[in-house]
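question for whoever is on the cluster today: can someone run the full assembly for these? two chains, 583 residues total. i dont have access anymore since they changed the login thing
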Amino acid sequence: MAAQGTTQPAQEAAGLVVKAENLHKQFGRLAVLRGIDLEVKPGEVMCVIGPSGSGKSTFLRCINHLEKINGGRLWVNGHLVGYRQKGDRLYELRDREVAAQRREIGMVFQQFNLFPHMTALGNVMEAPCRVRREGKQVVRERAVKLLDRVGLADKVDTYPAQLSGGQQQRVAIARALAMQPTLMLFDEPTSALDPELVGEVLDVMRQLAVDGMTMVVVTHEMGFAREVGDSLVFMDGGVVVEQGHPREVLSNPQHPRTQDFLSKVL
Amino acid sequence: MTQLDENEAPGQAQPETIKAVPVRHPGRWVAVFVLAVLTAMFVHMLVTNKAFQWSFIIDNAFRPPVIEGVRTTVALTVFAMIIGIALGIVFAVMRLSPNPILAAAAWLYTWFFRAVPRLVLAILFGNMAILYQKIRFGFPFDTWLADRLGLDINGTIFSIDARTFLSGFMAGLLALALSEGAYMAEIVRAGILSVNPGQNEAAQALGMSRLLTMRRIVLPQAMRVIVPPTGNETIAMLKDTSLVAFVPVTNELFFRLEAIGSRTFQIFPMLVAACIWYLMLTSVLLVGQYFIERYFARGAASERAGMRLRALGGSGG
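^ ran it for u. tokens below:
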């Protein structure tokens, strides 16, 4: 919150949840992102597809500053991610300010990354209790409600190791929602799941989209992208090759690289 | 899952449970016989060899001076381990810090205190009063600066006599605790490195600070790796407390038992008494370790995996 109080929302990104402008990211000499321009509007569900190594996960991780960008600009809710601008100069944000920015953004990982030493309820309650210092009783009620919403009301006191992959991922979604984020990032949320468990996670995400959550979803689930997505982005080699409405891109891809990729996965 | 429901499989009748002749193990029987004979010989020797002086051991091993020695030994072990673990956590976190100066300082500390033997450290700290008459707390370099500038300033806030502060117990405790801190730093570092980096990322993504992530997410999981070697260290520490006799600390367990031995010329029985005391104390520590390990293993394995493990253990459970 402190970080946001000190900077005025930038004019360039007004009214957008995410705005990326000529975004670059290198790992050593390897250029992973080579100029990304994207905009996500409030309530929009953007699906990002592309071959592995295309930079789609890296782009997602840049949005909540798990990766530091090397060039370009990135705004979330009108605020620069990881930096403060005064005149022409950029100042790095302190760890505390970066953490404050991240509270607005929920993230769901491919490998769930639940805290194994805490129960499902403990996982969901941890951040609201410890980071936002809300009252335990209030958080508990909200957490139970969230677990009920993802269909796990009966698993409240269960440890992650005793849950199936699909159940774990649903707890992870509830954990991210407990911080009441304005934006949810999904990094291949169903890629580590058994095929028969994919549906239950996608159902939760679909409901979240219906409820109006702004979402950026890196996925290989073309069915989900077509049904739920408001926009579809195809990335390859660190750039956005093609974007548009999911139905149009999937049924009538314009770029040969997109056509080639879709012919292999559809 | 493995329960078979008779109503469930209409097509296949439940076959007869297999009754086969088990594999024989003659080698095991030979080993059991040899061990039994050796054990009998050993017990026979314990009972019949007069040099053991069992009645003398029983009379002397529990006398008040020895009990006081036990108290000192336990206190040294507990305090040295508490300080050592605290230092270990601090230096492990420093060692893994992105700040190269902190990392280098932590490395230097572990390098020095792992390189110097505990016995040497104990004697060194015992003689520290040669180096300092007084231990003063205040502003650094105050007297040195005062000399240079020709001023009369004194930055001392309070001071104590080195001999009073560095009593035998304190000197011994410092030597053991500082040495332990170096070993614990390496154990804690291994524990922290064993935690999946995804855990760190998940905590960061929730907006948790570095310190909070370490305290609430990483360290509790690292404990599973840290606790077993720490149990080892505690047992080693219990035994190494006998080194402080060289500081010298005269109210420590082994010193007390040996003193009785040399005074009465019954040296061997008192050595046996020392073995018995250390065995008893170590056994208590092992019980404690069992419960601590069980606590930090919560959520680590599913119930089904536990069942499978117990099944592998066979008759052991």
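summary bc i know u wont read the tokens: Chain A touches chain B at residues 64, 66, 95-96, 99-103, 105-107, 109, 111, 113-119, 126-127, 130-131, 159-162, 172, 175-176, 179 (CB under 8 Å). Residues 1-6 of chain A have pLDDT under 50 and may be disordered.
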